[in-house]
Amino acid sequence: MSEILSPEQLEAALRDIGARRYHNLHPFHRRLHGGQCARDEVRAWALNRYCYQAAIPIKDATVMTRMPDAGLRREWRRRIVDHDGNAPGEGGIARWLRLTEGLGFDTAYVESMRGILPATRFAVDAYVRFCADRSLLEAIASSLTELFSPQIIGERLSGMLAHYDFVSPETMAYFTMRPPQAAQDSAFALAYVLEHARTAEQQQACLDALTFKTNVLWVQLDALWHAYVDGHIPPGAWRPQTGEGLR
């Protein structure tokens, strides 16, 4: 990209990435929301997604250490509280564990991450490293997948409650709480990117960062499909037929 985009053009380019590459388009999510997943496929998705959920406050803490401005740190700190809570049993991670518990998993097994797919772990680790190694602007831009999450959460919540009798509003509480948080977080991050991406090089770096993040989310679903739909579970990953990790 050689020409500098206006803020409106840059926002449109960022949103176009989501329209084309966000993981709500992945066949696994369509299968999940459409009620076509077997119970063990839903379990595998929730188990592996925990690895990603647990890494988000670690990623955000890494990003926050690179912020020289106290006001910016205070704004970003809220993300960590949203996920970790202010006390045990609070926050998004605790709500995700209520989902995995409702699906029959032992919480200690989920937290140990022993059964996580290798591709899930590699993708999540790559995202944390990206936010540690790239510029602050790129790290913030990579979080802009939150612009698109309210739509997928709405589809997930309504679809899963309609199609699966083994989930309930209580076990799906993560998804009822997350949309307003994501909307607030993405509004702040978008404003930051539009203000600070002033050169063509910086703007391209932001577009590339968001593309990278969509790849992080997409490849996790590729791995789930390969392992639990096509049946090619790699060594060490959770195997439903063994009953490992289930109460």
- Strand count, sense and closure of the main sheet? none
Helical segment count: 11
Radius of gyration: 18 Å
Low-confidence segments, ≥5 residues, pLDDT <50? Answer: none
**Overall mean pLDDT score?**
95
Total beta-strand segments: 0
Beta strand %: under 5%
The CATH superfamily bears the name Heme oxygenase-like
Enter the CATH topology name: Heme Oxygenase, Chain A
Model description:
It holds the Pfam family TENA_THI-4. Keywords: Oxidoreductase, PQQ biosynthesis. One of its GO terms (molecular function) is pyrroloquinoline-quinone synthase activity. The chain has about 250 residues and is mainly alpha-helical. It has a single domain (about 5-230), classed as Heme Oxygenase, Chain A. The chain has 11 helices and no strands. It has helices at about 5-20, 25-35, 40-65, 70-85, 90-100, 105-110, 120-135, 135-140, 150-165, 175-195, 200-230. α1 packs parallel to α11 (about 200-230), α3 packs antiparallel against α5 (about 90-100) and α8 crosses α11 (about 200-230). It starts with 6 loop residues before the first helix and ends in an 18-residue tail after the last helix. The model has no long low-confidence stretch (mean pLDDT about 95).
